[in-house]
Amino acid sequence: MKLLLHTCCAPCSIMCIEKLKEDNIDITSYWYNPNIHPYMEYKMRKDTLENYLRDISIPLIINDNYGLRSFIKEVYPDITDRCGKCYYMRLKDTARFAKENNYDAFSTTLLISPYQNHELLKKVGEELSEKYEIKFLYYDFRPYFREGQDKAKELELYRQKYCGCIFSEEERYLKSNK
Predict the structure, then answer these.
(1) SS3 for 159?
(2) How many domains does the chain have?
(3) I need a surface site. Which of 30, 35, 149, 170 has the fewest CB within 10 A?
(4) How many other CB atoms sit within 10 Å of the CB of residue 71?
(5) H/E run at residue 126
(6) Where does the pLDDT of residue 176 fall: very low under 50, low under 70, confident under 90, or very high at 90 and above?
(7) CA 31, CA 50: separation in Å to the nearest integer?
(8) Cα distance between residue 152 and residue 139, in whole Å
(9) Cα gap 124→119, rounded to integer Å
(10) Contacts (Cβ under 8 Å, ≥6 apart) of 164
(11) 44 CB-contact burial (10 Å; exposed 0-12 / middle 13-18 / buried 19+)
C-alpha cells in the first residue's frame, strides 16, 4: 500500500512510521500545518521533521504554507470548534494531494496523540475518504505515544509543548499560571 501520511512533527511520526513499516506500508510523509504558530515554532518543527526523515530515508512532501491568515479565517469566529476545523483543513489537503497523486490511502500522525480528539479525527478522515474516494487508513497509535516521545528525547529531537495553534499555546500558559 502506498500511503500519504500527514505529519504534524518528528516526535509524533517516530512510532507511526515504525508501526506502518512493520505492516510493509510504503510511506511518504506530508507536511501541511498552517495551524502552527508563531513562525519560529513552525520552522523549528518543519526543520526537525526534514532532518529526521532524511536520516531514516522517508520521503517528505512539503506544502510550505505558513498559513496564519488562512488558519485564523478557518477557525474564527467560533474558536471553540477550532480543533475540528483544523483537522478538516489539514486532512482535506492531505486527502486531495493523495488522490491527485495516485496514493492508495492517507492517514495522519495526529492519531498518536492522547491529547487530540481521536474520534473526531477518525470521523473527519472518513468523511474526506468518501469525498475524495480514497481510503483513510485508521490506526490507533496512542499506545505507542510514550515510547515515541522517549525515542524523540534519546534522538535529541525538538519536542514542542503544545499542539501548535496559538490558542493551545494560550491554554498552556493559562494552566501553568493557576
Answers:
(1) coil
(2) 1
(3) 170
(4) 24
(5) helix 118-132
(6) low
(7) 9
(8) 20
(9) 9
(10) 8, 33, 35, 36, 37, 41, 42, 45
(11) middle
Instruction: Tell me the C-alpha distance between 26 and 118, whole Å.
Output: 24
Find the mean pLDDT for residues 132-148. 98
Q: Is pLDDT of 94 > 70?
A: yes
Q: What is the structure's pLDDT at 164?
A: 82
**Structural domain range at position 46:** 2-176
pLDDT digits (tens, 9 = 90+) for 45-55: 999 999 999 99
Q: Could you tell me the CATH number of the domain that includes residue 12?
A: 3.40.50.620
Q: In what order do the strands lie in the sheet with 26-31?
A: 60-62, 26-31, 2-6, 105-108, 135-136
End-to-end CA separation in angstroms for the chain: 48
**CA–CA distances in Å: residue 47 to residues 30, 31, 120:** 13, 11, 28
46 vs 163 pLDDT, higher one: 46
